[in-house]
Automatic annotation (TrEMBL):
UniProt xrefs under PANTHER family: PROTEIN RV3402C, TRANSAMINASE
Membership in a protein family: Belongs to the DegT/DnrJ/EryC1 family.
Keywords: Aminotransferase, Pyridoxal phosphate, Transferase
Protein name (record): DegT/DnrJ/EryC1/StrS family aminotransferase
Signal peptide span: none
Keyword set includes Translocase: no
GO biological process: polysaccharide biosynthetic process
Gene3D superfamilies given in the database record: Type I PLP-dependent aspartate aminotransferase-like (Major domain)
Entry coiled-coil feature ranges: none
List of catalytic residues: K134 (proton acceptor)
Pfam family name, one: DegT_DnrJ_EryC1
GO molecular function, one term: pyridoxal phosphate binding
Organism: Undibacterium oligocarboniphilum
InterPro entries: DegT/StrS_aminotransferase (IPR000653), PyrdxlP-dep_Trfase (IPR015424), PyrdxlP-dep_Trfase_major (IPR015421)
């Protein structure tokens, strides 16, 4: 694998990745993500086609992809949601059968590995985010992971106005370069990433232990076969919990705790997308259901266990 010199942010990286592979027409993607995933398609004049998610992994469901393919489909853009790997083999089989490209939105997946190594080796390209909310961050930034030097050269050209040398421009590129300050911050972060991941793991384990057995609360499980990065700690608030998800969300905010409803609403519910036939709620029942139950609890390396205790006690006894 090769890594393009880091771009300004992951959104620019997605836009550039699509251009690097000359993607056009329609791209199958998930409605359950941050809106930058599908915005990158619109910025390239590409039509997003939304497909429902798997109820366990919360990633794009390969069983639903094939029926969404049309003569205009040129690629699939899945998301490794919360850093949990997609069914990469199932998606690859479909892509191979229909001669489609795959660009993984791997914004959450820094450091994630399966038995064969980095999850970023799958697909034609993978895009990382180094935003301040991510496991590894440069405040703002990202990276495009590609399989060969030739692709890397094209990406680097597109990211730097299309320049080849001082006087030649070969493509309508963009100013997508990371600043030196952000890069320097990233180099410092790399020195501490292993300890940060270890801290995240301990917090993840504490949450799971303390939340176990609370009626109406379930913790999202990653794949036990993978090395996780503990990027998020998502829970589902079911109908048999004491409160609705939004009531719990507002109660926690009143107590100075700031969870996030990642991802609510669905991308497909925003005005610029909801007119698409694939965005109809009947087409996305699992994603819609999950979006109304999801709550991501605070997790970061310096989060004190005493605060984890307070959060879990509030969830266990909200009244």
């Amino acid at each position: 694998m090769a890594c393009s010199y880091p771009p300004t942010n992951a959104t620019i990286a997605l836009v550039t990745a699509l251009q690097a592979l000359r993607i056009t027409g329609e791209v199958i993607t998930t409605p359950y993500s941050f809106v930058a995933t599908s915005h990158a398609l619109l910025w390239n004049g590409i039509k997003p086609v939304f497909v429902d998610i798997d109820p366990h992994s919360l990633n794009l469901d390969p069983a639903r992809i094939e029926s969404a393919i049309t003569p205009h489909t040129t690629a699939i853009m899945p998301v490794h949601c919360y850093g949990h790997p997609c069914d990469v083999n199932g998606i690859q089989r479909i892509a191979d059968n229909y001669n489609l490209k795959i660009i993984y939105d791997a914004a959450h997946a820094f450091g994630v590995q399966d038995a064969g190594g980095s999850i970023l080796r799958y697909g034609d390209l993978s895009v990382l985010s180094f935003h301040a909310t991510k496991v590894f961050n440069t405040f703002e930034g990202g990276a495009i992971i590609c399989p060969d030097e030739k692709t890397k050269v094209r990406i680097d050209q597109l990211k730097n106005f299309g320049h080849v040398g001082e006087t030649t421009v070969v493509a309508p590129g963009i100013n997508g370069k990371m600043s030196e300050f952000n890069a320097a911050l990233g180099l410092l972060q790399l020195q501490h990433i292993d300890s940060a991941l270890a801290c995240r793991q301990k917090i993840d384990e504490a949450y799971r232990l303390k939340l176990a057995g609370i009626p109406g609360i379930s913790c999202i499980q990653g794949s036990g076969e993978c090395v996780a990065n503990y990027a998020y700690f998502p829970i589902l608030v079911h109908e048999d919990y004491f409160l609705t998800r939004d009531t719990l969300y507002n109660l926690m905010k009143e107590k100075g705790i700031h969870p996030r409803r990642y991802f609510y609403p669905l991308i497909s519910q925003f005005p610029m997308y909801r007119g698409l036939s694939s965005a109809h709620p009947d087409n996305l029942p699992v994603a819609l259901d999950i979006s109304q139950k999801i709550l991501c609890l605070p997790i970061y390396p310096d989060l004190e266990m005493s605060v984890v205790d307070v959060i879990c006690q509030l969830i266990a006894n909200p009244c």
